[in-house]
Amino acid sequence: MAGPTGASGPDIAGNDRVNMAFIALIVAVATIGGFMFGYDSGVINGTQDGLEAAFNLSALGTGFNVGAILLGCAFGAFAAGRLADAVGRRTVMQIAAVMFIISAVWAGAADSSAHFILARFIGGLGVGAASVLSPAYISEVTPASIRGRLSSVQQIMIITGLTGAFVANYALAKTAGGSTAEFWLGYPAWRWMFWLQVVPAAIYLVALLAIPESPRYLVVKKRDAQAEAVLSRLFGQGAGARKVAEIRASLTADHKPRFADLLDPLTRKVRPIVWAGLILAVFQQLVGINIVFYYGAVLWQSVGFSENDALQINILSGVLSIAACLGVVAVIDKIGRKPLLLIGSIGMFITLGVLAWCFSKAAMVDGALHLDDQPGLTALISANAYVVFFNLSWGPVMWVMLGEMFPNQMRGSALAVAGFAQWIANFAIAVSFPWMAATLGLVVTYGFYSASALISFFLVQAWVKETRGRELEDMG
Questions:
Q1: Burial level of 268, CB count in 10 A (0-12/13-18/19+)?
Q2: In the chain, what percentage of residues exceed pLDDT 70?
Q3: Element (H or E) spanning 296, and its range?
Q4: pTM, to two decimals
Q5: What's the burial of 160, exposed, middle or buried (CB within 10 Å: 0-12/13-18/19+)?
Q6: Superfamily grouping for domain 15-211+251-469
Q7: Domain residue extents for the chain
Q8: What pLDDT, in 10s, does the model give residues 242-273?
């Protein structure tokens, strides 16, 4: 939906005026959580040499230090959905911002692997909370006609955060002469890579004071007057009372939201919509996207690129990801969510398969893997094409759908379960990659990711329903 020229435009559902300036402010602030999600996830890429040297890590130990954040993410996502039902979306996002700050300071100062893992686990609690609440919050305060576009901004900010971390890591390593080289105040550059995260985390914490609580949460808490005030400011004076009534009607009158809402009241089986959410959450990770973001520098170095070149490749991947996400913003409310998922599944299946073929051409040179020029160039092009396909589809669309596909009554509980599953799958992929690459080889490893992409195509066809243009009160 496009407004005339200024801060407001006509609501598709009626004659009220949508306050686009206020909605833009809310989306801008809420998606800083996505930036922190990306930055906290991506900062580890480029610090592995420092971690291994500081803590004397094995391949499996590196996997656990890299993956520690993901266990925190799983528990953070699980707790955030239900906690947000209890104390509010904005309050939980503020708690997440504080966790980002604590984690950044402690991870950079960690003097042992155990301390580092605990610090990253705390950061993961914040990432997990932000990952499910930012898109859910956005979906609860935006018009259905542009909800997909505005929710997609979350993925743009995630990739911007990842790219920001890659750029910061590259600049620090370049200036210091390497990630393990001494930098400011006598500390190695890799520690500053974590400490730099305090700046955006503090901005996030302060900015959250400028946005209101979700009106749907306020209705659940029977604070209808406050909800009406927020909705009137968002959608016009005539819309506030009407939308409060619609939200109230979508809630079950006899009990507050609970995990039992995820079960069909007659069969007591998990509702199909919950299974659909779990499929989206898990397969977004089984295609291996975060291997590019967590281990990209290590991967490219392992096939013959220098550390400097590998970090630059990470930046290129980030820029292409942002461009792809901007493409999604332009089309998601026009062609829908499901077609984008299907296109992405086929594209990732092909590009991951090409990558596996390229790695089959790698040879051992002086004890390290090496790709010749042609397979190396093909691998680089295929990897970046894969990143583009992911960010044209499963990257943003999964978060958009999780934020909007569940009915009001079960949204918090369903997000808790789907978010937990998403991050557990992320953890399993991240921790297993060093072992799989060393034991099974890159061909089998990337072949598994390619097969997962193909399977996801058929699962989306069978389980996922389109949500484009539907009001949250009509989901079910």
A1: exposed
A2: 87
A3: helix 289-302
A4: 0.73
A5: buried
A6: MFS general substrate transporter like domains (1.20.1250.20)
A7: 15-211+251-469
A8: 888 888 887 765 556 677 788 887 888 889 99
